[in-house]
């Protein structure tokens, strides 16, 4: 199969769809791999690194799309890429369709085979291709939140870990999935006082056993959230609805209950966000302030640490890329039900149930 790796062109997106090691594995199976020139530079991989393992370097994104049967990316195609996508071409990437009706309609028009990393799902309900980026984003949420709590950036002026004689900052985490647990670990490691909320009591019991004693679990409901936001300095939104829009757990009126300078980080921004006031931001302009609350809603957080993120992503995507390349998308999905759940749009038809209802009024 002819496989293309274009350069990511979303704002400050420095990741790349595949490492040279991934290209090496594809070449061993006699596939042709086209890599756009400089596609890997942001992640620390040079054109010569790809050439040494057998990739063909093409100068433009147009040539990569035109030459390839399958495109392997990181982020969803943006407007300038829509018309480059060919009918029946396999696009394997993070799509997050539920957050963009425009993207969804564009992919329907292009009649491509859209396989979304974020909905590839194991039998136990885990999301193997979303997990590594959720791990990165969860940890980064605390790293970024701690920075934006600083007073020069309009935060409360709080050091999360505190110092002897001064209480640590308080972190509230909504959602006890991968993002929430990684955020809790990072916040606890800094010495912060941490509360993690979820509606799954089985999950909360497990976390109560394995997380440090200064991480407190709490059952999530609107009343409880309203009480907790009054006293916490950093709030992380990490609730995921597989393939659908995230629930709005913090509404606009709730911002007035927070202390001025509170920081909220919405890791679910790719799925529409956990906060009513969420709107996607970029690494170039990451924050905005509403009612004295600092919002950090960068839609590609792991793109800021591209070396780590690209390695972590290729670790989990490569086997699926190989399966599609070796067997074709249809046969690969027939024999691998985990991969089959990644099918979102096929030749102009939405085939992922949650997406069918994403844009209903």
Automatic annotation (TrEMBL):
It holds the Pfam family AlaDh_PNT_N. GO terms for biological process: L-alanine catabolic process. Its EC number is 1.4.1.1. It catalyses: L-alanine + NAD(+) + H2O = pyruvate + NH4(+) + NADH + H(+). Residues 149-297 form the Alanine dehydrogenase/pyridine nucleotide transhydrogenase NAD(H)-binding domain. Residues 4-137 form the Alanine dehydrogenase/pyridine nucleotide transhydrogenase N-terminal domain. Belongs to the AlaDH/PNT family. This is Alanine dehydrogenase. It comes from Polaribacter gangjinensis. The lineage of its organism: Bacteria, Pseudomonadati, Bacteroidota, Flavobacteriia, Flavobacteriales.
